[in-house]
Specification:
It is built from eleven helices and no strands. It is about 55% helix and about 0% strand. It is elongated and about 60 Å long. The chain has about 220 residues and is mainly alpha-helical. The model has no long low-confidence stretch (mean pLDDT about 95). Helix 2 packs antiparallel against helix 8.
Length: about 220
């Protein structure tokens, strides 16, 4: 595909990308298993540098052992670290989760807040984590989740020239309609796992192939 020559063509291309993503992944949702916003917050913190599959294996036992934010707030980080050891970077994650629990119980009455500003005061919750929780748990489109898949595919699809996640998000919210922010992130993450893999993109099977001019496209 030739690159769009003007703003109107670029807007039309983005609209077509979104339409095709809707066709491929109409029911895309968060892969992290959870029953409430707090569990999603914990699972999202655990998912850093770890597969969702592994997180989903760890969290059922974790939430059975620590049912509430108050339970997490009361545990020592070095103890919690052993419960989440298999997710990697467990010492840092344990400190973040205990800190998050103490913040949620101390400042927000045990309820995960519903604004970006408040979410960003929680240990372990940068914009990506905050967007995951606000979007998936509350249906609040506060921004676009930029994880490694969204970062990589947004570049491949020429939706951004930036490499910093915050700047990538700023670019995406300018061109993606707000009512698509939540779904778009889930769709791109699924697409990155299913077809547009980093080492072996399956371009011939991809609905976006004719709209994509990434340099590393496969035949």
């Amino acid at each position: 595909m030739k690159r769009p020559k003007n703003a109107a063509e670029r807007k039309q291309r983005v609209a077509e990308i979104l339409q095709r993503l809707d066709k491929m992944y109409p029911n895309a949702t968060c892969a992290l298993h959870h029953e409430n916003p707090w569990q999603l917050l914990v699972a999202t913190i655990l998912s850093a540098q770890c597969t969702d599959k592994r997180v989903n294996e760890v969290t059922p036992g974790l939430f059975a052992k620590y049912p509430t934010p108050a339970d997490f707030a009361a545990v020592r980080p070095e103890v919690l670290a052993q419960d989440i050891r298999s997710t990697g970077f467990f010492n840092n994650k344990a400190k973040s989760i205990v800190g998050a629990a103490q913040r949620v119980t101390g400042a927000f009455g045990g309820k995960v807040p519903k604004t970006m500003e408040e979410m960003l005061t929680i240990p372990g919750a940068a914009r990506k984590t905050a967007n995951v929780v606000l979007g998936t748990a509350y249906g609040i489109a506060s921004g676009v989740v930029v994880d490694t898949h969204v970062q990589r595919l947004s570049a491949r699809l020429d939706l951004t020239k930036n490499t910093d996640p915050v700047k990538i998000e700023q670019d995406l919210v300018k061109i993606i309609p707000q009512d698509k922010w939540i779904l778009f992130s889930h769709q791109i993450i699924l697409h990155g796992r299913a077809l547009c893999q980093a080492r072996n993109p399956q371009c011939s099977a991809c609905e976006l192939n004719s709209l994509c001019y990434a340099k590393d496209k496969s035949v």
